Amino acid sequence: MRLPTxxxxxxxxxxxxxxxxxxxxxxxxxxDSMAVMVExxxxxxxxxxxxxxxxxxxxxx
Length: 61
Hints:
Blueprint: H1 5-17, H2 21-43, H3 47-60
């Protein structure tokens, strides 16, 4: 289920308001890590691109 951005932000704010500083730090660390994973996933080649790249590698050997 994908929430609209405003709804997601409101839920994050409500949740974080209930946390102590250590919990909030850990929570924000998790969000940062997830953002990095999303960027890494976006940078990965698609299956078709990976297949083409493997074909080129094999052709060069």
